[in-house]
Amino acid sequence: MTAPIAPLDGIKVLDLSRVLAGPWCAQMLGDLGAEVIKVERPEAGDDTRHWGPPYLHTDDGAKTEQASYYTCCNRNKRSITIDMASPQGQALIIELAKEADILVENFKVGGLKGYGLDYESLRKINPRLIYCSVTGFGQTGPYAPRAGYDLMVQAMSGMMSITGHPDGEPGGGPLKVGVAVTDVFTGIYSCCSILAALQARHRTGEGQHIDMALLDVGMAVLANQAVGYLNADEIPQRAGNIHPSVGPYQDFPSKDGNVLLAIGNDGQFARFCAATGNEAWAQDARFTRNSGRIIHRKDLQELMYPLMKTRTTAEWIALLEDKAVPCGPINNIAQAFDDEQVIARGLHVQIPRDAGDQIGTISTVASPMRLTATPPVVRRPPPAMGQHTDEILAELGRSPAQIAQLHSEGVV
Questions:
Q1: How far is residue 327's CA from residue 343's CA, in Å, rounded to a whole number?
Q2: Record's InterPro entries (predicted)?
Q3: Do residues 80 and 40 lie in contact, with contact meaning Cβ atoms separated by under 8 Å?
Q4: Residues forming a β-bridge with 81
Q5: Which of 9, 23, 147, 261 has the most CB atoms lying inside 10 A of its own CB?
Q6: What are the pLDDT digits (tens) for 66-114?
Q7: Which CATH architecture group holds 249-331?
């Protein structure tokens, strides 16, 4: 049988972005079958190549100077190094843009205009180009010129104000999320916007400019917390691991550690009470409905904390898993990758890389997009810096002598 055609087979992406949000978007497009060419700075490359520790290791276990961070968002790409500040480098990127369907960039607003690589310039040579700009604050507004990073946006959007323990509790105070979630969500929203623009191009034949901002995304993913404030005029507060609107939906100390309960409706609570021999709790007017359990949360916690310490985490999971009562462990990342469900889903992927740098295998996380007919495929490992420069230049029609000259002049 022949291999299925990937959803974005034949689509060409020019990735001028670096760090996380833009590269995450381009990687998703690559996972879906698009051909992605990543342009990096000669010698330096993407910033995240140097964001370590931790670092990649060679086959014999020796640590390299290549940070592992880069590998999380740059698989299924080829890397070419080009000096964008040089006229010859700009000309090469324009050649690549002529043939591209999509361009992703995350330079400061107006940063590419002086190089002739802004949307208005490139649309003249390629009207079908879908040009996605990712910035901290968008192309308009008083903050548009500012640089923006995930941590800054987590703080400005209010996300940190609702993450962490309340003031006055041990460890209280605002916290960032343990992953750069605003960057990741911006990459996902950007990919979704690009796919919508591709569909629109099927009808109109024209590309368009997409203006993505980390702050916009940071505000959007506040979700229920945002609309709760907007509609009820109540500012959400930090609540640790307790859900402000559902309960009991939190972690509890168990006999040997911690266990998480995620009871989201009255039926689940009743089944929990029956399983633990506490049917009276479900009949108690304070706890029968979710709204009451939130109002009387402290009363319910006083009953549940001693109960939850009577069993180990594994015993709680065994008791509740066939009762349709969501219950689970609080894993560290190593434990998560050892979980039988994670293993069964094939989420740890190892990819061989032949870049002449002794790094034989790179591990990554499989795409969570599971399309039955046209599934994402890891076709290329995260590339070494400039690994495909000569290959891509040859595809642009440059001879070996011309390629050698571009190298000697520092253009690539």
A1: 19
A2: CoA-transferase_III_domain, CoA-Trfase_fam_III, CoA-Trfase_III_dom3_sf, CoA-Trfase_III_dom_1_sf
A3: yes
A4: 40
A5: 23
A6: 899 999 999 999 999 999 999 999 999 999 999 999 999 999 999 999 9
A7: 2-Layer Sandwich (3.30)
Which residues make Cβ contacts (< 8 Å) with residue 216, sequence separation at least 6? 138
pTM of the full predicted structure?
0.94
pLDDT of residue 3: 66
Q: What is the CA radius of gyration of the chain?
A: 25
d(CA 305, CA 181): 32
List the CATH code of the domain at 12-221+340-408: 3.40.50.10540
Cβ-count burial of 116 within 10 angstroms (0-12 exposed, 13-18 middle, 19+ buried)? middle
The domain limits of the chain are 12-221+340-408, 249-331
pLDDT confidence of residue 356: 73
Q: Determine the pLDDT at residue 353.
A: 85
Give the pairing type, strands 55-57 and 63-67.
antiparallel
- Contact, 202 vs 138, CB < 8 A? no
Q: With beta carbons less than 8 A apart as the criterion, state whether 77 and 382 touch.
A: yes
Alpha carbon distance 270, 325 (integer Å): 10
In whole angstroms, what is the distance from residue 17 CA to residue 154 CA?
A: 21
> Catalytic annotation on 251?
no
The model's pLDDT over 306-327, given as tens digits with 9 standing for 90+, comes to: 999 999 999 999 999 999 999 9
* Preceding peptide of 174 cis, ω within 30°: no
| CB proximity list for 331: less than 8 A, separation 6 or greater | 339
Answer whether 197's CB lies under 8 Å from 207's CB: yes
Q: Are 257 and 250 in contact (CB under 8 A)?
A: no
Q: Which two tokens stand for residue 161?
A: 């104000």
